[in-house]
C-alpha cells in the first residue's frame, strides 16, 4: 500500500478536484450566508411589523366602536318624554342630546355615595349617569358636590341610552353657571391615539 501513497493524480483530475474543493464550496457558503442574513433581517422585521399592524387594526376597531357608542355630533336639545319614546337605543346605540330641567335627587335615592342625578323637566324624569374614569373621582363628587347641586336648574349634554332602564350618560353638565365635565370619553380618545402612535412606532424599530 505504501508504494501508492505518493502517486500524483492525473493533472486533469487534480484540476477538477481543486475546482470542486475550492470554488464550489466557497460559492455555496456565500450563498448560504446571504440567504441566512436575508432570512434573519426579514424575520426580525416581521417581529415588529406584525404587532404594529395588529395594533393599528385594533385601534381602528376601537375608534369605530367608540364613535358608535359615543357619537360626538348632532347634540340636539330634547325633552325627556321624546327621549323615552325612542326605542332604537341600547347600551351600545345611543342618541346625542341636550336636556334641561331641575335636579330633584340622586340617581339612587337615599344612597349617600351616589354620584348620579335624577333630572325632571315639564314632561318627565330621567337618570343622569355621572361616570368619571376613576372611581375616586366619582366618590369625591358624590360626597362633596352631588348634594350641593340638588334642587337646582341644570343643562346636561350627553348620550341617551337604555340598559335596561333609560338614562343619559353625561358628557358635561352646567348647574347654575358652574360646569362639570366628565372626562371618560376624552380619556378613551387619548388612549386610542397613544395606542395608534405606539403601533406605528413599533413598525419602524
Compact overview of the structure:
By secondary structure, the chain is an alpha+beta fold.
What descriptive keywords fit this protein?
205 residues, alpha+beta, 23% strand
What can you see in these coordinates?
A 5-stranded mixed β-barrel has the order 2-3-4-6-5. It is 48% helix and 23% strand. It is of the alpha+beta class and 205 residues long.
Element layout with pairings:
Layout (H helix, E strand, L loop, with lengths): L10 H59 L6 E2 L2 H5 L10 E12 L10 E4 L4 E5 L5 H15 L3 E10 L3 E10 L2 E4 L2 H20 L2
Parallel strand pairs: 1-2, 4-6
Antiparallel strand pairs: 2-3, 2-5, 3-4, 5-6, 6-7
Helix pairs in contact: 1-4
Structural class: alpha+beta
Helical content class: 40-55%
- The span between the termini is 64 Å
Percent strand: 15-25%
The total strand number stands at 7
Q: SSE order, as H and E?
A: HEHEEEHEEEH
Number of helices: 4
Strand order of the largest sheet: 2-3-4-6-5
**Mean residue pLDDT:** 85
Alpha-carbon Rg, integer = 35 Å
Uncertain segments: 1-5
Which outline best applies?
elongated
- Largest sheet data: 5 strands, mixed, barrel
Amino acid at each position: 500500500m505504501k508504494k501508492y501513497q505518493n502517486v500524483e493524480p492525473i493533472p486533469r483530475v487534480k484540476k477538477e478536484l481543486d475546482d470542486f474543493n475550492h470554488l464550489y464550496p466557497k460559492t455555496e457558503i456565500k450563498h448560504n450566508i446571504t440567504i441566512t442574513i436575508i432570512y434573519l433581517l426579514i424575520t426580525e422585521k416581521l417581529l415588529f411589523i406584525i404587532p404594529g399592524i395588529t395594533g393599528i387594526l385594533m385601534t381602528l376597531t376601537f375608534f369605530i366602536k367608540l364613535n358608535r357608542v359615543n357619537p360626538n355630533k348632532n347634540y340636539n336639545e330634547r325633552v325627556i318624554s321624546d327621549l323615552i319614546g325612542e326605542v332604537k337605543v341600547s347600551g351600545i346605540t345611543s342618541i346625542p342630546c341636550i336636556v334641561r330641567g331641575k335636579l330633584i335627587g340622586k340617581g339612587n335615592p337615599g344612597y349617600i355615595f351616589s354620584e348620579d342625578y335624577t333630572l325632571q323637566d315639564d314632561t318627565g324624569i330621567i337618570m343622569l349617569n355621572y361616570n368619571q374614569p376613576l372611581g375616586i373621582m366619582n366618590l369625591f363628587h358624590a360626597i362633596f358636590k352631588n348634594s350641593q347641586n340638588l334642587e337646582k336648574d341644570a343643562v346636561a349634554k350627553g348620550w341617551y341610552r337604555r340598559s335596561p332602564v333609560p338614562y343619559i350618560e353625561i358628557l358635561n353638565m352646567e348647574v347654575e353657571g358652574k360646569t362639570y365635565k366628565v372626562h371618560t370619553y376624552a380619556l378613551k380618545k387619548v388612549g386610542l391615539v397613544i395606542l395608534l402612535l405606539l403601533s406605528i412606532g413599533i413598525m419602524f424599530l
